[in-house]
Design goal:
By secondary structure, the chain is an alpha/beta fold. The protein is built from 10 helices and 8 strands. Strand 5, helix 7 and strand 6 form a beta-alpha-beta unit. The protein is globular, with a radius of gyration of 22 Å. It starts with 14 loop residues before the first helix and ends in a 13-residue tail after the last helix.
């Protein structure tokens, strides 16, 4: 992602352009790595792994604002701009959540954002307002006076525009559709604010939980109908799809502009099998024969 880095690594990469270029086949799909055990040491390791994106999970981890900010900075600085950070915020009923401040914290850190459990047009409009500077983008995000300091971090990609206008076009917004309600409202959501949403992700686990099903995938006709509706809606609005592509099953990434291909939690699960195999295959040490009581 060095080609998409900003003039300062405290700014977001040109993530909007990178996703669109991948969607249009100008570059390969963006390869992401999942930071589920969100901590500064793990972020520093992942920064060196060569992924295009490290997905910092702020939804399912005990991670405060300061830690999240430090992880984002470490990813972008230690990779020297070769890897960019995306932060998944938490759901509306948690702190931090979809609230104005939390969206600002992640974007001020220099990350792009992933917003889970978008179900309605109103929720999507709130996200866009909190994420964008200025009324021309229907935004009410507060400008951080000490984040991109004059002459140090405020150099714009386009010098004819303000830092705020530049950043509006750099940080990407991915929304997650994780309920039947969200899938059925997706057409209206993208009609209302699709020009400011850069990609969509179907969270199939939460989707299936809300539908009363187990697992990440299944053959239920009602579920498959929602999957088809989701895919057709993205095609209608010309919006990139994103998602998981684990275990080398590359066919699952064939229609996606951005894919998560691994992560710390998945590596732990793989090593669980190794531990169980070791327990079965490593025999007890031979009993020592005692000589003269010793």
């Amino acid at each position: 992602m060095a080609a998409y880095r900003a003039p300062s690594l405290t700014q977001p990469h040109k993530a909007r352009q990178a996703i669109r270029d991948a969607y249009e086949g100008k570059i390969n799909p963006l390869i992401g790595y999942y930071c589920g055990v969100s901590s500064i040491p793990t972020g520093r390791v992942m920064a060196q792994m060569g992924a295009d994106v490290v997905w910092v999970d702020w939804e399912h981890s005990a991670c405060g604002v300061e830690t999240m900010t430090a992880i984002v900075h470490d990813i972008q600085f230690m990779s020297e701009g070769r890897t960019m950070a995306f932060v998944r915020l938490t759901t509306p009923d948690r702190i931090p959540g979809h609230d104005h401040a939390s969206i600002g914290y992640a974007l001020d850190a220099g990350a792009s954002i992933v917003i889970p459990q978008i179900d309605t047009v109103e929720q999507a409009q709130h996200v866009i307002a909190a994420a964008k500077f200025g009324p021309t983008r229907k935004g009410n995000r507060s400008a951080p006076p000490c984040r991109w300091l004059p002459g140090i971090g405020d150099m714009g990609i386009d010098p004819t525009r303000s830092i705020w206008e530049n950043v509006n076009d750099q940080a990407a917004i991915i929304i997650q559709i994780e309920s039947e309600e969200g899938a059925r409202n997706l057409d209206a959501i993208l009609t209302a604010v699709g020009d400011q949403i850069d990609a969509v992700w179907m969270g199939t686990l939460d989707m299936r939980v809300t539908m009363g099903y187990d697992g990440f995938w299944g053959p239920e006709p009602r579920f498959l109908e929602i999957v088809e509706l989701y895919q057709e809606t993205l095609k209608k609005h010309d919006i990139p799809n994103t998602g998981m592509c684990l275990g080398g099953d590359w066919a699952k990434g064939a229609n996606k502009a951005f894919v998560i291909v691994g992560g710390d939690a998945f590596a732990f699960l793989g090593d669980t099998a190794t531990i169980n195999s070791a327990r079965k295959n490593l025999a007890p040490l031979p009993t020592k024969v005692k000589i003269n009581g010793h």
